Task: structure prediction
Amino acid sequence: MRKMGVVELSFVIVGVLLSGLWSWAILLCLGAFLGALLRSFGVVRDMDEREKYIDGLATYFSLIVAMLLAMIFFAVYREPNRDIFYAIILIPLLVRSLIFIIMTYPRESFVSITTKVYGSLLILFALLSHGFSVSFVVESLPGVAIILMGILATKFKKWAVCFWVFAGIGLYFFMRSSIVSVAKVITMVLLIVPLVLLGITAFMRFDDTF
Amino acid sequence: MQVNVRKVRKKRGLTQEELARKVGVSRQTIVNVEQGRYKPSILLALKIAKVLDADVETLFKLEEVDWR
Result:
């Protein structure tokens, strides 16, 4: 199940990154549904019945989020642009992944998996933006910090506060600027929502799922 | 629904992990079944009953509230 999750996430990242060079590469994001398709044809059997049920539930909620976003952007902007499409693709996928992981894995695994994926993505984006340079080292520090916080929060509960401190810092930088754009909203949602959830989860008992 | 899986499993000396492996699901699924948060399919209920050597109705009992 985790291997398929990594494959699906890779499709989304490569799709979004390549779409800047070649628009049709965005279709690679459909790879997010590769696992679900292979499971429905019986090719991959990596989930039990409860996990399949949660996967369906998470997909249902992500559809609601996608439609809601599409309607809000239509009401606010009238004319679609590239950032709006990214928001409609990425935010529901984030919602789907978070709902699935939080309901399927024990809370400890949720914190561990999410911080590793999240931190690695921040480091990857810093590397892709700057190559191996001083800027890369500086910009990858938040990613490294999140991975470390994940390790510490699974051992010492008090460290869970750091997730909220990080979310607060992110929110402060978002609110400081008076210009609100779709790109900024996407960045805020993608960065802050997982941090807030991580904080809540890390403070709860680790012996169970939600 | 009253769920007696935990009680019967302990009587048989099985851990959640062992039961999960024998019926082919994750441990978290057994945890959720035992706590009554997930209602298993007929197939899974029969498998659990078989592994625990008990009747399905011993493991899962309907309650008045389930008829509403």
Q: What stands out?
A: Helices of chain A lie at 2-19, 34-40, 49-77, 82-104, 107-130, 134-155, 161-176, 182-203. Chain A is about 75% helix and 0% strand. Chain A has a mean pLDDT of 82. Residues 106-210 of chain A form one domain.
